[in-house]
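P.,

For your records, the input lines for the assembly:
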Amino acid sequence: MSAQTWSPKPARPAPANTVGFVGWARENLFATKLDTALTLLCVTLIVYTLEVVFGWAIIDASFSGEDRKACLKQVQGACWPFIDAKLGQFIYGRYPEMERWRVDWVFAIGALGLVPLLMPKVGWKRANVIFMLGFYPLFCFFMLTGGVFGLTPVDTTDWGGLLVTLVVAITGIVGSLPLGILLALGRRSELPIVRALCVAFIEIFRGVPLITVLFMASVMLPLFLPDGVNFDKLVRCLIGVALFSSAYMAEVVRGGLQAIPKGQYEAAAALGLGYWKTTRLIILPQALKLVIPGIVNTFIGLFKDTTLVLIVGLFDLLGIVQLHFTDSSWATPETHITGYAFAAFVFWVFCFAMSRYSIFMENHLSTDRDKES
Amino acid sequence: MTDPVIRISNMNKWFGTFHVLRDINLQVAAGEKIVICGPSGSGKSTLIRCLNRLEHHQEGHIEVEGVSLDGSMKNLESIRSNVGMVFQQFNLFPHMSVLENCTLAPIWVKQKTKQEAEALARQFLERVRIPDQADKYPGQLSGGQQQRVAIARALCMNPDIMLFDEPTSALDPEMIKEVLDVMVELAEDGMTMLCVTHEMGFARQVADRVIFMDEGEIVEENEPEAFFSNPQNERTKMFLSQVLSH
Ligand SMILES: Nc1ncnc2c1ncn2[C@@H]1O[C@H](COP(=O)(O)OP(=O)(O)OP(=O)(O)O)[C@@H](O)[C@H]1O
Ligand SMILES: [Mg+2]
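C-alpha cells returned:
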C-alpha cells in the first residue's frame, strides 16, 4: 500500500452578505419578523426619549441670567443659570471663598496621583501607592482643615457639596477594601474566636440600615464616650461609612475566596509558604480578580450612599443642591428638576467611570491567563 | 543500608470516625524509589500527604530527615521546603507565568534574590525540557507541559525527597510518556522518591520497592520483579490482574 499525501484545503472567504455591516445587521437586527419588529420598536423609543431629553435640556432651556426671571418662559426647559450661579456652593459647600484654592489643590493632586495609578502601563506603582496612601491623606487633612503652616482653620461643618461627597466616598472606598478583606479572611479562619468576631461584625453591620449606623455614630456614640473626648462629626461619618461598607465588601471577597480550589492552598503549603504569604501571593490575587465586578458594585453603592450623611447634618452634593431649592431668588417651576438632574448627572459620571474602569481591569487581567491550569 | 530519611512507625489516621490509615510502618532510605499502588480509596494519597503534613496523623510516629512530625512543630515550613510534592491536578498558580511559578517559593521561602531564583528556574525548566515556555501562563500549556512545570517548580526548592500523587492520571496517553521520562531521569539522578502511580512500566523500571495498599493498610511490599511475577497475597493478585489486563 503506497502512502497517500494529504494536505488541508485552502480557506475561502465567507459569503459577502454574511460579513461587514450588512451581514451584521441582517444577523442581529432583522433576522426574523419578530426581530425586525423589536428593532423598530426600540428605535422609536430611543428617538422619542432623546427628543424629550434634548427638548428639555437644550431647546427649551435657559442658559444665562442672573435670577429666576431667566427661567420663566412660556415653555420652560432646564434652568441652567441656577446651576451656574450655585456651582461654587455645590462643589465646596460653605468653604470660605478665599480658601477654595486649597480644595482645588487637593482635587488636582489627587487626580494627578490617581490617574497614573489606574493606568496599568505606567510604572512606579509602589512609589505611587506610598504617595497616595501615605502622603496624600496627610496633605488633604492639613490642606482642608488648616490651622497649620499659616492656613486659616476651616471647620468641617463648613465643608459641603462635592467635597464632602468625595471625602466620604474615597475614605469609605480606601478603608472598606482592606477591612473587608481582613473580615473575609477572618470569617474563614480556623480560630473560632476570630471567626465568631468577624461573623458578628459582618452580620450586625449588614443587618442595619446605613442611616442607623450614621445616626448612632453621630448621636449615640458621644453619649458612650467620656466627657472631653470628642470626635469631629465628619470623622464619625467616615468611620461609620467605612465600617458599613467593609461588611458588604467582606461578603464579596469571601465569595472570591470560596472559588479558589483547595489545590492552590495545598500547592502553596507543599512549597513551604505560610498562611500570610499564601494568602497574599496566591489566594488574594486570584480571588480579588474574580470578584472585581462585586467590589466595584459595592464601591458604587457606597458612593451613592454618601448622600445619607444628610441625616446627621452634613451637606453632601445632593444635600446642598436641595438646600438651595429654598432660595427664593431662584424659585421657578424648573429649579428642582434642574438641580436633581445636575446632581444625578454628577453621580452618574463618577459611578459610570468606576464601572467602565472595572470592565477595563477585568479585560486587562484576563488576557491569556484565564484558562484554568 | 544507610540511615532512613523517612521513618513511619505504627501510624494511624482517622477522618472523623473513618479509620483511613491503619498501623502503617515504613522506612525509606536516602535515594530509594518507592512506588505505591492500590485501589481507589485505599489511602495512598493520604499516606504521602502525611509526609509533608498536608494531613495530620493521630497516632504513631512520622520522622522526616530526623525531624518528628507532630503538632508542636515549629519548622513545618522548612520541612515542607525539603519535601517536594507533585499533584494529580498540577495545581499550578494560574495567575503567574511559568517562570514566576518556579521562582515564587525560592524567593519567598528561601530568600533567594530574583536573579538567583530565575537562573535556577531556567535550569530546571531546561531539565524538564520546556525552557522555551518560561514566559507563558499555565493555561496556555498542554497537560503534560503543565505537569512538567509542576515538577520543575518543586525541584526549584532543591528538595531531598519528592512525593508524586498520581502525576500522570489526569493526562492524555500521548503526554504520559513525556512526564514519566522526566521522572525516570530524576530517579536516575538519585532523588528519593515516593510515587503513587498505576504506571506499572515505570514501577518496573525505577522502583526499588513496590507497596500495595488496601483499606488503609500496607498489604504487601516487595522488589518490583518479585512483586509483579510472584505476588504473595490474594488481594494483590486480584489487583494486579485487573491493572495489568489493560
Ligand atoms: N478530607 C477528607 N475527609 C474525609 N474523608 C476523606 C478525606 N480525604 C480522603 N478521604 C477518604 O479517605 C479514603 C482514602 O482517600 P485517599 O485519597 O487517600 O485514597 P487514594 O488511595 O488516594 O484513592 P485514589 O486512587 O482514588 O486517589 C477515601 O475513602 C476517601 O473518601
Ligand atoms: Mg489519591
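Two observations worth noting. The mean pLDDT of chain A is 86. Chain A has two domains: 19-59, 80-95+154-366.

Regards
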